[in-house]
Amino acid sequence: MLDYLDRWLSAGTITPEQHRALTALVRRERFPVFVELNALLYLGVIAFASGLAWTTRTYAAQWGDAAILLPTTGLLVACLWYCFSHVPPFSPGHVEAPGLVFDYVLYLACLVFAVELAYVEYRFEVLQERWDNYLLMAAVLYLAAAYRFDNRFVLSLGIATLGSWFGVRISRVDLLSPNLFRTSALGYGTTVGLIGWYLWSTGIKRHFLETYLHIAANVILAALVSGIADRDGPSIWLLGVLLAATATAYGGVRFRRFAFVVYGALYGYLGVSWEMLRHIRGDTAMLGYIVLSAGLMVLGLVVLSRRFGRDA
Q: What are phi and psi for residue 145, nearest 5 degrees?
């Protein structure tokens, strides 16, 4: 690698400053820990919020409502004060976070809000049978915060919470059937994709579009594959999987997003394999098909990933 760096410097591909920085990294004179720090911060926030939820659920009756609500409210206010006092002015484009911990403090505020909201309904049953409206309110607030603070963590949380509200509403329909849930999932995934595309077309936080598409693609493809898994399901589900998987993979290739190529390949493979295994008799034949087809799938993705890396 050092030889390559010297050649690039001689050819003028990189500047002397870049050469010095990269050489220091190759020689382990500098060791980047940015990814590790972010992972630790994320896990720390999740662990803290989980512990807070367990504590409020376990000791609510023993400590009383005031002992639970006052500290959680104080923590929520402190997190929001930090975020609003450090946030840059709003911009429809991408805005860098003012510090390493900023995104995680905002994420913690959202999780603490969710814990407090759940505790209020658990103790006081304000909305009772209409408690799912809490999910809708939280989803709207999370999405608003995601756009104000330019935070993908909170954006994903808002989209997932919206999906939870959508699922609860559907679960209250009488005479539920697997097809109804699949149709609802298709509607939710399509809605998420359209919302992301509309906001992208208006120029508001266009870099958020990929987050919407990740969730929409997985929800839609998973719903179509579940239709094939249902033995009573019509063959139209297989056609839907093939069309959606092909479109997803093509979009990944077209716009240089390898994750979508993986989605299309994996869900397409699952759909075709599920249909194939219905017609294969004998454990040995099934095992042989799974081993051979899975190996070819992995090999194909590895080759394709290397091609993506060279073309990038």
A: -65, -40
